[in-house]
Amino acid sequence: MSRPAEAPARAASSAHRLRLVMAQTDFLVGDIPGNTRAVIEAVRKAEQDHQADVVVFPELCLTGYPPEDLLLRPSLDLRIEEALDSLLQEDFAAVVVIGAPVRHGGLLYNAALVIEGRQVRARYFKQFPPNYQVFDEKRYFAAGSQPCVLDIRGIPVGITVCEDIWHDGPVEQAAAAGAKLVLNLNASPYDIDKQARRKSLLERKSRENRVSIVYTNLVGGQDELVFDGGSMVFDHSGALAVEVPQFAEGLFPVEFLNEHHCQPVSQPPLAEPSLEENVYRALVLGVRDYVNKNGFRSVVLGLSGGIDSALTVAIAVDALGAERVRAVMMPFRYTSSMSLEDAEAEAKALGVQYDVFSIEPMYDAFMATLAAPFNGTRPDTTEENLQARLRGVLLMSLSNKFGSLVLTTGNKSEMAVGYSTLYGDMAGGFDVLKDVPKTLVFRLARYRNTVSAVIPERVITRPPSAELAPDQKDEDSLPGYDVLDQILNLYVERDFSADAIVAEGFARADVDRVVRLVDINEYKRRQAPIGVRITERGFGKDRRYPITNGWKSGK
């Protein structure tokens, strides 16, 4: 790449102070020119608004994260070179630290680059590319081995990238090379307990190595992943000095006193959000970015009068605005008057477009056509599934005609045991609650009503039902959700065997039934829409089981 002449030397910041800005930014995967412009605009704003000496961006910010097989495209190197040339043309006053894929010696590395004076002054190659859960970095990246420590405005600064901080080695190398401040560039996806684990790790790493650590994290939704930001600064004693809001894009300044240990100036602590608030904000961000980044004007969903669709429509409105949400009630002879009343109340409370289309005529037409082949058989789940599939056809037709994304409403408990209909309630483009257990659905509904009451109380308290048969209740064919979700947590997220789950005190009959349902419904989940991941192990990128297999549950 070309190297413009170095800009004239600028006056250094105070010998005793350094202003650093964490750019907690939302990037679009694959849009390298757009992401480059976003970096330039952010640096300019950080210089103007905060007089930044250093601006630190998230991991792989030029490509967005995770770029997946875009990293294998033949034009990747050219596009990155063009992006870097654009950045080097800018006369930045600040030192800029960005993440990008860089090829060196024929190998591709997940790199951090330090830009100063229209030059790439230093680069660091990530030493621990992760290859677990949702991460596949060893498919693309070689591992670095060398530390990177350089003087920035009189302070010895070490550079690391994301996973490096979770392992012994990179931070220790930087500290041994004299670093007083370590910059850690991250693209760390959200799950319910993630921020607490990060804090515990950063406290230990900063205290043990006697360095301040700046943890700058990506924010935004990318397919099933949500990056929550939550960037932080810990001082050399292991104390949390600065924490910025999760799920919020922005430029967040921190000032360091360049005396002895490069001490960050502490800022007032943030109020600790409840688990429900945190998860709800993750779901809202995941929906907003998936819809907007993929260019959908609006969304449409079936509003049944049940709790899952009630929570989904509330999330959609909070993510996109009521004017971009359409709710459709599709009643049948088994739909209760309570469901009709509650669905209409929810739609009115949220101000969305609301339609009612009966599926009765379509059902009768299908059954007339099927009368001959079904002659002599008894009604069973076939007729129940037909109702769900007719609703799917209606929603997909509205999607095609008006360019709306269909949101499905199945929760994690249902997805786990196959309590859903292929090409019916599973028909759509994005499942908002896909990784939300049913017991958490109830908690989120109550949380949303503390913001404004939009979900009728009886929707939360009535026994859940698909209303595909007379007097049908979910618990007629499943253990109670309080039991089911505990079994699913042990089996799906923690890999307990059936015997081990029974040893935890659960009934053998319940465990065997649930485990069997999870196993035989893998084929359904492979055909389900993606959805926001909020747990350590969702159904998607980080749980991959063969559909065809002879594995026997038990041990």
TrEMBL record:
L-glutamine binds at residues 132, 188, 194. Coiled coil: none annotated. Its EC number is 6.3.5.1. ATP binds at residues 302-309, 409. GO terms for biological process: NAD+ biosynthetic process. Pathway: Cofactor biosynthesis; NAD(+) biosynthesis; NAD(+) from deamido-NAD(+) (L-Gln route): step 1/1. Residues 18-258 form the CN hydrolase domain. Keywords: ATP-binding, Ligase, NAD, Nucleotide-binding. It is an enzyme of class 6 (ligase). The active site is at 59 (proton acceptor), 126 (for glutaminase activity), 162 (nucleophile). SUPFAM superfamilies: Adenine nucleotide alpha hydrolases-like, Carbon-nitrogen hydrolase. Deamido-NAD(+) binds at residues 385, 414, 524. It catalyses: deamido-NAD(+) + L-glutamine + ATP + H2O = L-glutamate + AMP + diphosphate + NAD(+) + H(+). Gene3D superfamilies: Carbon-nitrogen hydrolase (3.60.110.10), HUPs (3.40.50.620). GO terms for molecular function: ATP binding; glutaminase activity; NAD+ synthase (glutamine-hydrolyzing) activity; NAD+ synthase activity. GO terms for cellular component: cytoplasm. It comes from the Bacteria. In the C-terminal section; belongs to the NAD synthetase family. Belongs to the NAD synthetase family. Catalyzes the ATP-dependent amidation of deamido-NAD to form NAD. Uses L-glutamine as a nitrogen source. HAMAP family: NadE_glutamine_dep. This is Glutamine-dependent NAD(+) synthetase. The lineage of its organism: Bacteria, Pseudomonadati, Pseudomonadota, Gammaproteobacteria, Pseudomonadales. The gene is nadE.
